[in-house]
Amino acid sequence: FLMTNIGPNQTYAVYAAMGGLSGGAAVRKIVNVAGDKTTTDAGTLAVQPGRRIAGTVVVPEGATIPPHTQIMLSLTVDSDSQRVEVRPDGTFSFEGVPPGGAELYVRIPGLELTPSVQGRFGGVSLPPEGDVKDVRVVLERR
Fold it and tell me: Is the pTM value of this prediction over 0.90?
């Protein structure tokens, strides 16, 4: 593909959006663009098996997870995110997640993320490498 009319003398991250590669993930590339009317070749984006992120949303006793509640996984470096529906038992999973920092976010009226599990950007931080099979997103009453 070809990207035209982007700003000169800038650095860009080139990546494929999560979920767009059928379970795979493209390794992001940093590309430095030179001056006006120049061409820069980013090369080929390598596709590798994506990470799997799975876990459970935990609510306090007496609270329930509303139907169709979604949880969002957001990459901390790129402007990319993905949403999935939380199952009635609180479980969820994401496939095709690229390596790198990410956080999970969920909103349920009347509840908030337990401060002890909040990451740098207010969500639940995930490790930058490998599958995560048992992350717990713990919510408490406000």
Answer: no
